[in-house]
Amino acid sequence: MGKVWFVGAGPGDPELITVKGQRLLREAGAILYAGSLVSEACTLWAGEGCDIADSKGMTLEDITAWLIEKAAQHDTVIRLQTGDPSLYGALIEMLQPLDAAGVESEVVAGVSSAFASMAAASESMTLPEVTQTVILTRVEGRTPMPEGESLRELAQHKTTICMFLSITLLHKVREELLAAGWADDDKILVVQKASWPGEEKVVYGTIANIREKCRSEKIAAQAMIVASPTLGARDWQELKKSKLYDASFTHRFRKAEV
Ligand code: SAH
Predict the structure, then answer these.
(1) Can you state the angle between helices 91-100 and 60-71, rounded to 10 degrees?
(2) Coil, helix or strand at residue 24
(3) Is the torsion defined by CA of 95, 99, 102, 107 positive or negative?
(4) What are phi and psi for residue 215, nearest 5 degrees?
(5) Cβ-based burial of 237 (10 A; exposed 0-12, middle 13-18, buried ≥19)
(6) Residue 243 Cα, ligand 1 centroid: separation in angstroms?
(7) Among 54, 181, 204, 30, which Cα is nearest to 117's?
(8) Ligand 1 neighbourhood includes 137 CB (under 6 angstroms)
């Protein structure tokens, strides 16, 4: 029996897969990728004769049955996941049937689209004395949010908030942020297809106008919404510098200048 690897493909750019993920793709006898989200380019790293399938039309049962069947034929089988496998990736639902079938498995981390979106706009999730916390979440759609996790509640912390799977719910994002005490002219960033070569779109707006801007840019899928008090900080005149590089700050690797 072979082993099934859940590999984070990264956000889209095939160069943003990890070195380990790339090596495993080269060694794999079979690869199942989510064609609706993972760039087909990632499968370019696959070796010759590799059995490659798209899971686009498959149910969860089809997927796990495919992985178990291929693990009986190959040493290395890969389930290629978009971004990082631990975020909105149905990882546990796939691991359980493999465990039940006695198939060995392991997870390889990937670059999440949350990070690629910030990179696309040269923005920082954290900034000294502005916010030191990041919330990765989604707005309630068909999947209900657990108690205490509505955007209205989370947003009261005024931290950086990355919203997955929510681009069609921008009206709700506005409603909830305003209810949490944000203002209509607070900045919002939307990035579509972050890191996809030639396809990435970066749109800035305000809580009031971001929906209209996305509509005119025809952004309706595969997009990250970021609300953060750090947005646009590159243009700020007054910036609290990180203590790590502060000349008067002593840490393990450097003594303060006096
Ligand atoms: N595990 C993935 C998220 C899967 S959920 C990760 O770590 O990134 C799918 C959602 O992720 C999409 O609805 C969108 O909000 C976001 N997403 C995935 N790829 C993206 C990309 N390249 N650019 C912007 N958002 C992306």
Answers:
(1) 50
(2) helix
(3) positive
(4) -65, -45
(5) exposed
(6) 32
(7) 204
(8) no
Give me 79's structure tokens. Answer: 């389930």
Largest CA distance in the chain: 66
Q: Would you state the structure tokens that stand for residue 215, as one six-digit string?
A: 């509509």
Both structure tokens of 171? 């009206």
> What is the distance between the alpha carbons of residues 26 and 102, in angstroms, rounded to a whole number?
25
> What residues are paired with 53 via a beta bridge?
32
pLDDT at 136 over 70: yes
pLDDT of residue 244: 67
Q: Nearest residue CA, atom 2 of ligand 1?
A: 83
- Average pLDDT value for the chain: 93
- Global confidence as pTM: 0.93
Among 3.30.950.10, 3.40.50.300, 3.30.420.40, 3.40.50.720, what is the CATH number of 113-235?
3.30.950.10
